[in-house]
Design brief:
CATH topology of the largest domain: Jelly Rolls
Structural class: mainly beta
Radius of gyration: 30 Å
CATH architecture of the largest domain: Sandwich
Number of strands: 59
Helix content: under 10%
Distance between the termini: 25 Å
């Protein structure tokens, strides 16, 4: 299970339940007479093959240690003509399996006109119904969807006066029969809760499997949702209020859901008390993209609400009465649909031609109406690069940083692309190779040298979005800086800027996230009429140009409107609208097959100037990178990726069980990770939780270390993790494929064994790393340590996070 079971909950799931038998289509009984009925064939493990038997292999498969299992039926001697004598010519291998249960999704309590799941005890949902409904969508792990037989188990606890929790009810639905994968299950509480009762609900998926002839209901495994939904029963609190709109957005019904407005476009919402509520003093409301409730006073106020993303949204509203500081009541859920925002005014993918093609223009592929604006390359130092943000087969814009005569490379349009007197946004991907001076990614300046520019500042070592204007003949500036110093070189970073003409603010974005609060221009900052062209790779000043870029630029887009935070995150996500996959770029690949010595090159990714160096006496053995867990390490000067952006790391690792058996409980060793100036930015870890004695083939007992894989950050105390954890204990002395991913757009980390997701995506606050990418050791509390006895192979790292486990499987190669 992903969490320890609460009191009264079912025992944690034991993955690997199966029936190790195959069935021949035409195997016969004791006689060869064709009239004999077909007979099953028993498969039995061979004691001499303790690590290769069917039982152990299928257990590993069921536990998620591999994503695919191939079974074959063959005679003991395929060259013997009598090998298949007692079979017909249509013998088959028929395998029955059961889907491993996955954490249920959407656990919630019915409140007012919708459902809610408040995850903090201090702010529970207020429920006016003493017998509330509970809902959840049951799931299986990937691969088990077909033929899944599932039920939902709702564990509901109430808080006692002494602060403890006790089970209130545990309904399982459906009570008879089963539902399929992703089915929504709803149940009314079998018990009634007294007024003032604080309770919490957790849902579980139960997966059942069959016996020989019928479903055995007592044979199942379960897995829980992560966390609890807290609620408080109060029949005297305000009821769910009435919510209406000015028509910009409209309530979705069962049969119609018309899109209105758009991202960043506000609409008026009107809040009124429910019938019979006379003491309403105000309201609380929120959208899914808001981390906290917002407040408004008055018994019937009007509130302008601005959604950030297109698509369906749920506005939650609850009234507060005038009792004491005000009690919140039941929630109204207002479902509405936000229309797609206007697309990019200009978009340049820079994938038009190969590096040696001689082509010197990049097409504007935006689909909005209006004139298209090609970018023209200038000087021999500007051209195409085969290293690009969207991965293999893509191209980017390369501005040569190696030849002094070519340091004035750039590209520009022939006319203005956006009007700077109105709201606008710009998004780019930058790969900076030189930080010795100011470097401009993109800009658009007018003939009076006012306007905007997006650049790297060598004086503060930060990304900057700069706005300039003239006031009484004096040029003035407002600059929005990145919150974290130390821009990483030779890594891909999304950098964007937004000017909001209504609020008169500018905002800088890095990897899809706003950097601090919007900077106010004030009443004096007035943009002039736009007559300058879009520049990529330089900016203008005092009638000339400066701040030439060195490195690569890719995926430039400009919009004639202010993108919301959510839209800028989507822009940084690079999601393929046809497949749903995200764009990933391999930036490091080290394979020790056939290699010896103390260095290992990267001939695959194209970013090959980053060889691994082995230290501490470690040497390559022709198959793996063996590290002793004492002082061995394998290191690449870093950073390899921008830690604040999405990335994925994978490797095969084999733990040294004998060496780990000597480690103390609580020991942590790093498989691979990247460091900051004072500690771990992130890593793949082995965390030892104890040892156990395991019987051996010769009848003796052997101490075997027990621990779990983790992906995330280890704090300076060397004990506390912010991480996701493997569902099952880590295997020793066997190769295991580990993959970790950080999604900067939703701020979560994920862990995969092979391509099977473990745990659930978990919130993670990225720490900008500037140090080494290292295997076999970690930098914790400003010192190297946490050495891990291991053998690793096939170490790879990408910019970008996968959209799902299918994409993970494609990335790691099945």
């Amino acid at each position: 299970a992903n969490n320890p079971p609460p009191p009264g909950a079912p025992a944690p799931p034991q993955k690997g339940h199966f029936r190790p038998a195959g069935r021949g289509a035409a195997g016969r009984g004791s006689a060869c007479d064709p009239s004999q009925p077909a007979k099953p064939i028993e498969f039995n493990d061979d004691p001499s093959q303790s690590y290769e038997n069917l039982t152990k292999t299928v257990q590993s498969f069921a536990a998620g240690d591999m994503s695919r299992l191939t079974l074959m039926l063959k005679a003991g001697d395929e060259g013997d003509p009598n090998g298949w004598k007692r079979f017909d010519d249509d013998a088959v291998l028929d395998v029955n399996y059961v889907g491993v249960p996955g954490p249920p999704t959407g656990p919630a309590v019915l409140s007012g006109s919708g459902t809610t799941c408040e995850t903090t005890e201090s702010d529970p949902a207020i429920i006016s119904d003493p017998t509330p409904d509970f809902v959840s969508n049951v799931q299986t792990e990937s691969g088990g969807e077909s033929g899944a037989t599932l039920r939902a188990h709702f564990v509901v606890q109430k808080k006692n006066t002494d602060g403890s929790w006790s089970v209130a009810t545990e309904p399982v639905r459906p009570s008879s029969g089963f539902v399929t994968d992703n089915a929504k299950v709803q149940v009314t509480s079998p018990v009634s809760f007294a007024d003032g009762t604080l309770a919490r609900m957790q849902s579980w998926t139960r997966s059942y499997w069959s016996g020989d002839d019928h479903m055995i209901e007592s044979t199942h495994s379960s897995v829980a949702s992560k966390g609890w939904c807290y609620f408080k029963v109060d029949t005297t609190a305000p009821k769910a209020p009435t919510v209406t709109t000015d028509g910009t957005y409209s309530l979705c019904t069962a049969n119609a859901c018309a899109a209105g407005g758009g991202p960043g476009l506000g609409g008026n919402f009107y809040f009124k008390p429910a019938s019979g509520d006379t003491n309403i003093a105000g309201y609380e409301y929120r959208l899914p993209t808001w981390p906290t409730w917002h407040s408004v006073t008055g018994s019937a106020p009007t509130k302008l609400i601005t959604p950030e993303l297109p698509g369906t949204q749920i506005l939650q509203v609850r009234a507060k009465d005038n009792v004491g500081a005000g009690r919140p009541g039941a929630t109204t859920s207002f479902l509405f649909k936000v229309a797609e925002g206007e697309g990019a005014t200009g978009r340049w993918h820079f994938d038009d031609a190969a590096p040696s093609s001689g082509v010197t223009t990049a097409a504007d592929t935006a689909t909005t109406t209006g004139t298209r604006h090609a970018l023209t390359f200038h000087t021999a130092g500007a051209g195409w690069s085969s290293l690009a943000r969207r991965g293999e087969g893509d191209r980017s814009f390369w501005l040569d940083s190696t030849v002094a005569a070519n340091q004035t490379a750039w590209a520009d349009t022939s006319a203005p692309v956006i009007n700077m007197q109105a709201s606008f946004s710009v998004s780019t991907w930058a790969f900076l190779t030189d930080s010795s001076d100011f470097r401009t990614i993109a800009s658009q300046l007018n003939s009076d040298n006012t306007g905007w520019s997006l650049y790297y500042s060598s004086s503060v070592q930060r990304w900057v979005f700069l706005w300039s204007w003239y006031e009484n003949g004096v040029r003035k500036y407002v600059g929005a800086n990145a919150s974290a110093a130390g821009v990483p070189l030779k890594t891909w970073t999304q950098v964007g800027g937004v000017y909001n003409a209504t609020d008169r603010t500018i905002t800088l974005y890095v990897n899809g996230r706003p950097q601090g609060s919007p900077m106010e221009l004030g009443t004096s900052g007035k943009p002039t009429t736009s007559d300058g062209v879009l520049e990529v790779g330089r900016s203008g000043y005092s009638g000339g140009f400066e701040r030439y870029w060195r490195g690569r630029v890719d995926e430039v887009a400009v919009f004639q409107r202010a993108l919301s935070d959510g839209e800028m995150a989507q822009e940084a996500g690079l999601i393929d609208p046809d497949t749903g996959s995200t764009a990933v770029e391999l930036v490091g690949a080290w394979n020790p097959d056939g290699a010896t010595g103390t260095t290992l090159s990267d001939p695959v990714s194209g970013y090959g100037g980053r060889p691994i160096t082995l230290t501490g006496g470690a040497t390559l053995d022709g198959e793996t990178i063996p590290l002793d867990g004492v002082d061995d390490a394998a290191t690449v000067p870093g950073p390899v990726v921008d830690d604040t952006g999405s990335f994925t790391v994978t490797t095969e690792v084999e733990l040294d069980g004998a060496a780990l058996a000597k480690k103390a409980t609580g020991y942590s060793g790093q498989v691979v990770g990247q460091r900051t100036a004072d500690g771990s930015a992130w890593g793949l870890w082995f965390n030892q939780t104890g040892t156990e004695q395991v019987p051996q083939d010769d009848g003796t007992l052997k101490d075997v270390p027990v621990g779990y894989w983790r992906f995330g950050r280890l704090a300076a105390d060397g004990k506390t993790y912010t991480a996701v954890t493997s569902d099952s204990a880590a295997l020793t002395d066997e190769r295991v494929r580990l993959t970790g991913a950080y999604n900067a757009q939703d701020g979560t980390i994920s862990l995969y064994l092979d391509a099977t997701p473990n745990d659930v995506p978990t919130a993670f606050t990225a720490v900008a790393g500037s140090g080494d990418f290292s295997a076999g050791r970690a930098y914790v509390n400003k010192a190297w340590g946490n050495y891990l006895p291991e053998k690793i192979s096939d170490l790879r790292i990408w910019v970008g996070a996968p959209a799902n486990d299918m994409q993970v499987e494609n990335m790691i190669g099945g």
